[in-house]
Amino acid sequence: MPSFILIFLTIFPFFQTKERVINPEFKSELEKIYNQQIPTIDINQFLKLNSDSLFILDAREENEFNISHLRHARNVGYIWFDMRSIYDIPKDRTVIVYCSVGNRAQRIAGMLIKAGYKHVYNLYGGIFEWVNEGHPVYTNQGAQTPQIHAYNNRWSVWLERGSKVL
Fold first, then answer.
1. pLDDT of 51 strictly over 90
2. CB 139: neighbour CB atoms within 10 A?
3. 6 inside domain
4. What span, in angstroms and rounded, lies between the C-alpha atoms of 114 and 102?
5. Could you give the CA distance from residue 104 to residue 116 in angstroms, rounded to a whole number?
6. In this structure, is residue 157 part of a structural domain?
């Protein structure tokens, strides 16, 4: 009987769960930089949110954002971040902040929380993990692209999919 099950799972792979497990070494690096006071949201939780009721903020710089970003994301940058760039976001709405891996995003998320935003989350693993899990990214023209800004040589090793741009 066990051989029947093995053959069945081989012939019908769609019955197998294929949820990606984050690279343990990447996870270890993220845990070193993440501040436990800033809530994170994993990609599966993020995908379950009602997209009509949330705001997605990209905390990368404009040149990174211009290469690719999550659909419907608003670039707010990091170095020149200004709270006036989010004046239109009600403080009771859900806000997801991301960057390459989450370090810059958590800092921007912290500023939002200090300013009174109630539902702010750092996307766990950032755009790197988003792409690693096989989710699409887009150009400013709305076209899907394989290109991802790889941030720098130290962090680019954690980008497993896509076409790296530095």
1. no
2. 13
3. no
4. 18
5. 19
6. yes
